[in-house]
Known about the structure:
Largest sheet of chain B: none
Helix content of chain A: over 70%
Structural class of chain B: mainly alpha
Number of helices of chain B: 2
Structural class of chain A: mainly alpha
Strand content of chain A: under 5%
Largest interface: A-B, 18 and 14 residues
Oligomer: heterodimer
Shape of chain A: globular
Distance between the termini of chain B: 19 Å
Amino acid sequence: MTPEIFADPVLAWLGPVPLTRTMITSLATSVALIVASTLIARAVRDQPSGVLAALGRLTTRFLADLVEQAAGQRWPALEAFAGALFLFIAAAAVVGQLPGVPSPTSNLAAAGALAAVVFLAVPLAGVRAKGLGGYLKHYLRPNPLLLPLHIISELSRTLALALRLFGNMMSGHLVVALIVALTGFFVPVPLMALDLLIGLLQAYIFTILSCVYVGAAIRVGEES
Amino acid sequence: MTEQAILALGSLITAGITMAVGALGAAFGESRIGAAGMDALARQPDEAGAITRNQFVALAMVESTAIFCLVIALVLLFANPFIQGS
């Protein structure tokens, strides 16, 4: 038995573009999130005392607290960014519990794409806060000799973000698949619950690390 | 033994050693985090929420080294570039 760990089967072709399983599941996850967010936004406007509105306010409050804790200040733009990351990864973990549907983030390419978004967001936020020269100058501090180390640290933390998410999601599915192959149905249910918990925890960690990285980028050069 | 058999044998043994050593390091690190978290909880029960949250983040960061080892072991087993047909 060779488990599908790095493979991503092509399910359909859109002209010359292959549509892989990960693309379809992540698109479905995004569409479901957009629909749910639209419903919640409408509920917040029309029925401010309803359950959906309370859910929306709880979520935004949670994200605002997370950003303030990780980045050190209230910052609505980063809240939206962190919210997108957190809700997508958490929804991907929930989607992964459906039978026959692997989580979108248990594919290395999808996890790498999320990490690449963070990798690009860090210099964008830094340049916006400090200007191009002010941000680039921090690469030469405290000594120009440390420039390679700065670059290696940015690349390696992006790799670590991608591999951490991919490895955690993939290993959960692998354990469940192995237990199903060895014993049968209903035995892996506790492990699936653990997998779901780990997925939500990884969403939180990915988000909080992204906020820490972006928050560090806007405060470069300010010695604390 | 053919060259492929030697490569396969080496990959299997290395994957086992990778997982063993990686899990060992992560286990020691996580036990220290757990002990430190309990200590902090006993000293300051009021800060239970913040302590637990940060403890989980630290646990996941340490655990990721074991996950890296798992990824390497799986690459050796299922996506080894030197073994034909894997």
